[in-house]
Amino acid sequence: MLATRTTLRRGAAAAAALPLLIGAVASCGYGSESKDDDKVAPVAKGEKLSAATVKLGYFPNLTHATALVGEQEGILQKELGGTQIQSTTFNAGPSEIEALNAGSIDIGFIGPSPAINGFTKSKGKNLRIVAGSASGGVKLVVNPKKIKTLDDLKGKKIATPQVGNTQDVAFLNWIAEKGWKADAQSGKGDVSVVRTDNKITPDAYKSGSIDGAWVPEPTASRLVKQGAKVLLDESTLWPDKKFVITHIIVSQKFLKDHPDVVEAVVRGSVKTNAWINANPDRAKVSANAKLKALTGKDLPADIIDPAWQSIQFIDDPLASTLQAQADHAVKAGLLKEPDLKGIYDLRQLNKVLKAESKPEVADAGLGVK
After folding, report:
1. What is the rounded CA–CA span in Å between residue 111 and residue 120?
2. What local confidence, expressed as pLDDT, does residue 91 receive?
3. Nearest CA to 248 among 152, 322, 333, 307?
């Protein structure tokens, strides 16, 4: 089911592009250029909730497949009844946070770094994380002719999406744990960290200007198609091989004014994840169809198949891994010690999970009281 696209003002987008402490590119990484979708969504059916519309934001990325499939299959709209979805797509976390702050969107799918940055810059007053969405989907891929083992990375040039974004922080932390040094701002050190937009990383690899990349899907699989080799899956570095790559945020004002709408979106997300996990092949086709509708291009099988397999679609926002990612950013010198207490409000998610006979999830002590 296609949804109406709203257009953000250029001024807001330009402001959002300014460097932030962390997450200057959405942690979810790869995304084609945003554009308006002139196709109008079908009229919502059923009883309206407390809001006539809900403005939803997300990325045209596989790591945002909960939103892609939820819209494509009509699962989100079904839960909202007569409350109409209006969607906007983004390519960078800061622009989505800017839109949330401006009221251009009410609810968004986003990565951990921009959520942390947005929450701390507003002194904890602009957003709440209300549910999880996806885990994983990040890999270290390298030129196998130059790099055969992890130790071979020393002295090589490895790309990350942008200084301070989620993959950049993860790679800097990995370098530090190896006992190597790299300056967080310049990227210079025992390993050269080359900040490269995911859209041009494949060309940079092809030209030989980088020797590998620590990147999200489907960029990693694009590089593999060019001959790169997966040397490390980031999930292997985390407990239970899970870490947050996408979760759902909502503006605190919208949550206060329209808790029933937020609950409906959360319920739709939970049901979408259940459908994805029960029907992985159909869900992959659905996500790809939505990507084509949004960007004009779908992903070929040799890219989407391996990329899809590395992403887990989950309801748990994995709060403990969010705190760990913040700690890594502080350790790298990219973020001052943040106070993340109150960043989560999982009451509606746990209500939905209980109704679905699923176990409740924890907020790692970072939830509202």
Report:
1. 15
2. 85
3. 322
Q: What is the CA radius of gyration of the chain?
A: 19
Give the pLDDT confidence score for residue 44 in this predicted structure.
62
DSSP-assigned letters across all residues of 114-139 = HHHHHHHHTTS-SEEEEEEEEEE-EE
Q: What's the pLDDT at 9?
A: 37
Cα(85)–Cα(96) distance, rounded to whole angstroms?
Answer: 17
Q: How far apart are CA 256 and CA 250, in angstroms?
A: 10
63 exposure class (CB count in 10 Å sphere: 0-12, 13-18, 19+): buried
CA distance 125 to 343: 9
Note the pLDDT of residue 26.
36
| Global pTM value | 0.85
8 A C-beta contact, residue 242 and residue 314: yes
Q: What is the pLDDT of residues 327-337, one digit of tens each?
A: 999 999 888 99
| Rounded (10°) CA dihedral 172, 176, 181, 184 | 30
80 burial class (0-12, 13-18, 19+ CB within 10 angstroms)? buried
Q: Could you tell me where the beta strands, DSSP code E, fall in the chain? A: 4-5, 53-58, 84-89, 107-110, 127-136, 138-142, 157-160, 192-195, 212-216, 229-233, 244-251, 311-313
Q: State the burial class of residue 242 (Cβ atoms within 10 Å of its Cβ: 0-12, 13-18, 19+).
A: middle
Looking only at the bridges linking them, the beta strands covering 53-58 and 84-89 are parallel
Respond yes or no on whether the N-terminal peptide bond of residue 218 is cis (omega within 30° of 0): yes
Helix (H) or strand (E) segment spanning residue 101: helix 93-102
As beta bridge partners, residue 139 has: 215, 233
**Residue 178: alpha-carbon gap to chain centroid:** 27
Which residue ranges in the chain fall short of pLDDT 50? 1-42
Q: How far is CA 66 from CA 42, 60, 72, 198, 207, in A?
A: 20, 11, 10, 21, 35
Find the helix packing angle between 280-295 and 301-309, rounded to 10°.
120
Q: pLDDT value at position 8?
A: 37
